[in-house]
Amino acid sequence: MPYSSLFRSEEMSLIQLYIPQETAQPTVAELGELGLIQFRDLNPDVNAFQRAFVKEIRRFDEMERHLRFFDAQLTKSDIPVRPLTGDIRNIHARSAQEIDDLEEKIIEHERRITQMNDSYETLQKQYLKLTEMKFVLQETRVFFDEATSRQDNIRNSFDEPTAPLLEQQDLEHGSESLVLHHLNLGFVTGVISRAKMLTFERILWRALRGNLYLKYVEIDEPITDPETDEVLEKNVFIIFAHGKELINKITKISESLGATLYPVDSDPNVRDNNSTEITSQIEARNSVLQNTYNVRRTELLKIAEDLNIWMTIIKKEKAIYHTMNLFNYDSGRKCLIAEGWCPSNDFDKINQALRNATDQSGSTVPSILNELRTTKEPPTFIRVNKFTVGFQEIVDAYGVAKYREVNPGLFTIITFPFLFAVMFGDFGHGMLVTAAALYLVIREKKFEKGISDEWHGNQTDAQQIGVYPIGIDPAWHGSDNFLIFTNSYKMKMSIILGVIQRDNNGELVHSAPPGLLNMLIYMFLQPGVVAEEDKLYPGQGFVQGTLLFIALICVPWMLLTKPFIMRRDHKKIRSQGYHNPQMDTTRVSTDEDNEYGGAVVAEEMFEVEEFDFGEIMIHQCIHTIEFCLGCISNTASYLRLWALSLAHAQLSSVLWDMTLKPTLGMSGVLGTIAFIIAFTLWFSLTVFILLLMEGLSAFLHALRLHWVEFNNKFYEGTGRKFQPFSFKLILKDDDH
Amino acid sequence: MGGWNIIMIGFGASIFIALSYISIPKGPNQTTIRTSLILTIICCYLMWAIAYLAQLHPLITPKSVGGIHHEELKF
């Protein structure tokens, strides 16, 4: 069995699975853990509500709803849910019995929690009402006491309009009630929010035309209103008025303003009794509330232990049934037929999974894996590890490789950091970036949850290759004509690297290497002839002439070879096709668009019939023109290697000259201070501008060179990515 | 030194390339490691060779117009 490699996407096979009904769920569970099959939908015309396993999915939806409810309750009570650790994630999907048990457990929990929540709410309301009542009794006692202490004054000023309304005859016997009755004086007591107090007073005065006596006191602590659940500042009020109609009016007005009325008895003894009774009731409520709170918390803590496990199980089960909905149900043989793509190398693993599932469920009927022949284009599957995945991602961002096409990802592993380094071009900065990358790699486990693959893959690879190994002679540093030299050097280097990278894919094209301007121009104007004084090396004329000739030949070569070869092959197939009408016995896929039995081979013949030479020629023409024009433009595009490295070098140089260099000449304390400031400035600008900004810039341009100049030479990138049924992928998606 | 260095080092690089081709053990990552090594050797060789060639037959030499060379600064 050949190893799969990054060079091409893997060979994929279309397979058919026959799964007996009783092993269906465990089989799909095993395949989900394996994650190697992309199932096709065999029921595309059936809408979601008519599929076979809708009931089961609905059941799991219900359970999921309960679990979400638990999650909300836990958040409200600030209880953390136990997170999933690595091995717990590998919980296998459960058997039918275990699912039933789980469902029961969840429903039971939910019932209890809802019950406790309700009773807590009720108790809470009662508690609040009682508390307000307590305050009312407390404060009104003050009024009544106050009033009775003025009995002497009252007697004398009974008829005066400013006199207090209360008259006491006999305080010791607590006969207030007689007095009030005698005077036909009623009162209303209650609680109202402080904000509305003034409005309340004003409305009462206007409505009753001043025939009332209102007194109020503020309650010190804020109270939660039992009806609305808001926390408010409240006042206790007592209103005395004459006659039943006025009392009724007052009652209506208070209620409309949202005051809560609490009846208070006029007899002080009764009031005292009420007071003690209420206090004891408050105590009782309080203890019951505490109790309920604790029991609820214990219950929630228990749930918190298992919540994530349950959620994972439910998610897996739902995924299993959604997948099973894609299968075809053969009622005659009581089995499910599944169809899908899988890597050809993994048949053994899949068969093993099927066997495991059969053993687990204790059934005697095995599942069957069958390979189908097809002309459909398979999905593209490239096996990556955590190092290569980053590079593959940036290639896939441009376009997923066509099935079995050469994968640029393989080369990108080296060429991308190389071009990045040529543009970044700085050993010192490179070391800093490498250090940062090393830090991330070492702390990989900790970062695993946070950082996405792309960023990680890129960082791991910021190792610099573009270092000066033997390099540029240090004598150049500081000289005034340094730029002239380096510009020429970099330009040539860019072009050479560009030509080599493009030649790498095997297209037979030769571009003339750039030389001195005149030489180049005259090479085309006077082919094969070079003036004696201009000669750079012996035989130059001949070499130039030959190169030009080869370049000229390449154009018709590119234009004509491929179409004619294709035409010749087509003729060969055609002649063969009529001689071999027999078709291999193929298991036909249960797909609806194959209407004829054995239509597989017929399709092939159909395509061959449609070979159109004219169309192929046109395509090839376009391709040739594109390539020739691209030769110039793409080569020039590589000059950005020069541009960026120049920019980076100059920026670094100027930064040094402007910040640290002047301070090196200063001496003494002033010099030291200046140095420290300059160093801070220099280092922070280095990190932000030279490392981050320039790094991003180099990344972008290296990427562009790969995506455009490299890829457009050979890469089609029209494939679709292999997306297997895998619990790992499903759970990972849900986490984000 | 001379221009022959380029050829000699190039020859050495191809030896390394051949070695890496044959010496990487079979395994799921064989292609990746081989390709990476070969590309690395080629890239390093190229960088060195281009820099070397650029200085082989110099058309200009370093010139300084007054001022102190930074290597001569005293602290």
Automatic annotation (TrEMBL), chain A:
Q: Where are the transmembrane segments?
A: 418-442, 508-525, 545-565, 668-693
Coiled coil segments of this chain: 92-126
Q: Which branch of life, at top level?
A: Eukaryota
- Return any one Pfam family short name: V_ATPase_I
The way this protein sits in the membrane is described as: Multi-pass membrane protein
Q: Where in the cell is it found?
A: Membrane
User: Which InterPro entries does the entry mention?
Assistant: V-ATPase_116kDa_su, V-type_ATPase_116kDa_su_euka
* Similarity remark: Belongs to the V-ATPase 116 kDa subunit family.
Q: What is this protein called?
A: V-type proton ATPase subunit a
TrEMBL record, chain B:
The reply to whether Membrane figures as a keyword in the UniProt entry is yes
Q: How does it sit in the membrane?
A: Multi-pass membrane protein
Q: Mind telling me which residue stretches traverse the membrane in this protein?
A: 6-24, 36-54
A molecular-function term among this protein's GO annotations? proton-transporting ATPase activity, rotational mechanism
The family database entries (InterPro entries) matched by this protein are listed as:
ATPase_V0-cplx_e1/e2_su
UniProtKB keywords: Hydrogen ion transport, Ion transport, Membrane, Transmembrane, Transmembrane helix, Transport
Where located? Answer: Endomembrane system
GO terms classed as biological process: vacuolar acidification
A single Gene Ontology CC term: endomembrane system
Q: Which domain of life is it from?
A: Eukaryota
| Any Pfam family matching the protein | ATP_synt_H
Asked if Ion transport is a keyword of the record, the answer is yes
Q: Which family does it belong to?
A: Belongs to the V-ATPase e1/e2 subunit family.
PANTHER family membership: V-TYPE PROTON ATPASE SUBUNIT, VACUOLAR ATP SYNTHASE SUBUNIT H
The name this protein goes by in its record: ATPase, V0 complex, subunit E1/e2
